[in-house]
């Protein structure tokens, strides 16, 4: 499997930095995890829309804003006869108004399916499962496995979900973890997001092979996230837009 980084920043995009998004590919299977603001600029239209699967981890703006434009593009390319199959969109069913807003988009060419804690999704040789996090809205960590390699995406989470995520991530090849905060920012240990240190602690306790940090505050130096995590966990990298991570 391969990961292409589409977006790493929150709550807004800046030049060269998009809100969260990750393209996972395995053979011909394409899965986009989250559609943050700006990620469409890194997609190859209309080819990437063909047989595309999109999973939205939670309905916070920084994770689904570009979905609307992508849906509209699917509508246009279908009208042009250049997109035959509907794109598959998997998403949580709350907050209800946001969910209904997305599904009520008429100018789109998509199918929708709800995700939940016990849900299993099979796409070709890929199995996808979910673990619910503590976060202000219904939010899931996502596990993607081809039976040999496993990728975990924490999405957004409070550290109060730590034990659950450690168990869910056990011995994964790659843990893509939010690291919105640094210890020096001075937030309480339990808040809505993780520090780089907390992300690294989860990686260490789950015994994953590689930690990929993401979901950065736009005004913060990226190297500070790296340094804080590196003190706890050795094999850590900072996600960067356009970078590709090949899993050995
Ligand atoms: Zn977020
Ligand atoms: Zn969030």
Number of helices: 5
CATH hierarchy: architecture? 4-Layer Sandwich
Largest sheet: 7 strands, mixed
CATH superfamily: Ribonuclease Z/Hydroxyacylglutathione hydrolase-like
Task: Give the overall silhouette.
Answer: globular
Describe it for me?
The chain is an alpha/beta fold and 248 residues long. It has one domain: 4-Layer Sandwich (Metallo-beta-lactamase, Chain A), CATH 3.60.15.10. The chain is 22% helix and 28% strand. It has 5 helices and 14 strands. Strands 6-5-4-3-2-1-14 form a 7-stranded mixed sheet, covered by helices on one side. α4 links the parallel β11 (174-178) and β12. The chain is globular and about 55 Å long. The model has no long low-confidence stretch (mean pLDDT 98).
Could you write a compact summary of the structure shown?
With 248 residues, the chain is an alpha/beta fold.
Main features:
alpha/beta, Metallo-beta-lactamase, Chain A, seven-stranded mixed sheet, 5 helices, 14 strands, globular, binds zinc ion, Metallo-B-lactamas, 3'-tRNA processing endoribonuclease activity, RibonucZ/Hydroxyglut_hydro, Beta-lactamase-like protein
């Amino acid at each position: 499997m391969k990961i292409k980084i589409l977006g790493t920043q929150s709550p807004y995009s800046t030049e060269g930095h998009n809100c969260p998004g990750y393209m996972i590919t395995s053979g011909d299977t394409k899965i986009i995890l989250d559609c943050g603001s700006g990620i469409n600029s890194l997609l190859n239209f209309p080819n990437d829309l063909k047989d595309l699967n999109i999973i939205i981890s939670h309905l916070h703006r920084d994770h689904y804003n570009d979905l609307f434009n992508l849906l509209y593009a699917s509508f246009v390319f279908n009208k042009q006869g250049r997109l035959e199959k509907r794109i598959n969109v998997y998403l949580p069913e709350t907050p209800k108004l946001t969910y209904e807003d997305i599904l009520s988009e008429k100018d789109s060419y998509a199918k929708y399916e709800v995700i939940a804690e016990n849900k299993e999704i099979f796409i070709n040789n890929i199995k996808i499962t979910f673990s619910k996090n503590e976060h202000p809205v219904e939010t899931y960590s996502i596990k993607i496995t081809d039976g040999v390699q496993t990728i975990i995406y924490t999405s957004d989470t409070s550290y109060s979900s730590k034990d659950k995520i450690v168990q869910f991530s056990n011995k994964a090849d790659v843990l893509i973890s939010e690291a919105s905060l640094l210890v020096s920012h001075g937030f309480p240990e339990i808040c809505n997001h993780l520090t780089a240190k907390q992300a690294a602690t989860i990686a260490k306790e789950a015994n994953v092979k590689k930690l990929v940090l993401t979901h950065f505050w736009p005004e913060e130096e990226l190297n500070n996230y790296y340094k804080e995590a590196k003190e706890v966990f050795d094999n850590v990298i900072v996600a960067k837009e356009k970078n590709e991570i090949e899993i050995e």
